[in-house]
Amino acid sequence: MSKHSSKVIVTGGAGYIGSHTVVELVNAGYEPIIVDNFVNAEKSAIQGIETILERKVTVYEGDCADHDFMKGVIAQESDIVGLIHFAAYKAVGESVKKPLKYYRNNTDSLLTLLELMVEHNIHHIVFSSSCTVYGQPDKLPVTEESPKKPAESPYGNTKQICEEILEDCVNSEMPVNVVALRYFNPIGAHVSAQIGELPLGVPNNLVPFVTQTAAGIREKLTVFGNDYNTHDGTCLRDYIHVVDLAKAHVSALNYLGKKSEASTYNVFNIGTGTGSTVLDVINTFEDVNDIKLNYTIGPRRAGDVEKVYANVDYANTELNWKAELSLADALKDAWRWQLSLKKD
Length: 344
Ligand code: NAD
Ligand code: UD1
Prior knowledge:
It is built from 11 helices and 13 strands. A 7-stranded parallel sheet has the order 3-2-1-4-5-6-11, sandwiched between helices. The protein has a two-stranded parallel ribbon with strand order 7-10. Strands 8-13 form a two-stranded parallel sheet. It has helices at residues 16-27, 44-53, 67-76, 92-97, 99-119, 154-171, 206-214, 242-257, 278-289, 313-319, 327-343, and strands at 7-11, 31-36, 58-61, 80-85, 124-130, 177-183, 185-187, 221-224, 236-237, 239-241, 264-270, 276-277, 295-298.
């Protein structure tokens, strides 16, 4: 696709990963068109993006599962070359309690977008999938060929179902080229501290809990178990800086733009290729930010995977993409972002 008029619809573009991706898209010469209903984002994210870019960005406020609304967006913006579909609900625990909410939003939005792609001759879609599809893998690191495991939650199941929907569309020779990116654990924030993650309520994820504890918002971090089969007994994950992850979407669009075939399905692991334990994260956070973190060892969290990290060879070679930032960079940036929130 030519970069000059390359308008790309970014659903969920005001969210955590979407906002960082919008910045990288503009840096790479694409023209992002954000569609977000702000169910899990603040308007301040748009201001943050605009401050970083020193320009305005196009934003449509609405539900990307709403066919008529999206048709209006596409009509207003001619020459859309592709879509990046971030919009979804993502709280694993809530999805167990409210499965229909998750199945409705996460699948409906994708179905609507696919229908619109056919109606309007839009051929490229990048979809946000997750390493959750691998469950606890039998072999590490996981490659894209590693078997999928039954989902542990309705949220996880929506990612598997959406991957299957996309694959079935391609198998039916619908004229769409798909890249599904299986993200490992995104952490950190933009180095400017203008955008970052905005967890609502008590965070479930490790790094927001770490930064909120360091900021005194939470009294203490509990490490969920230290009797796992890892070098220090705590669970191991592949933590990837959100800016590296954002850049993977630019690479995915470039990759799709070069495709001559009409209907292809492509899956990539997006991680660093390295695993870090919970204690590695805590120790690195303390070191790079010169802070002592109040933490205690507690029992295992139900449903936690012991260890998972990515083989990223396929993304390295095919997408010409590689994670460049370190765990230390991500934890410095996460802390800088936390401090910027505290000032508000
Ligand atoms: P996020 O909640 O910060 O961003 C999602 C955005 O989508 C929000 O701005 C929200 O307001 C918007 N949205 C939700 N439903 C919408 C709808 N129907 N119409 C329009 N906008 C809608 O989440 P995130 O962390 O940026 O995640 C982005 C995507 O990546 C999601 O699909 C998520 O499942 C997936 N993912 C996230 C992680 C992670 O750890 N953050 C890991 C793997 C996969
Ligand atoms: C989460 C999601 C998963 C998603 C993945 C990648 C949940 C339950 N799962 O899993 O669907 O695919 O991110 O983004 O949200 N930890 C603590 N104390 C805490 C919080 C976490 O010790 O207070 C530990 C956990 O046990 C885990 C590690 O930190 O070992 C990372 O946890 P988390 O950030 O929740 O991510 P995942 O469990 O990988």
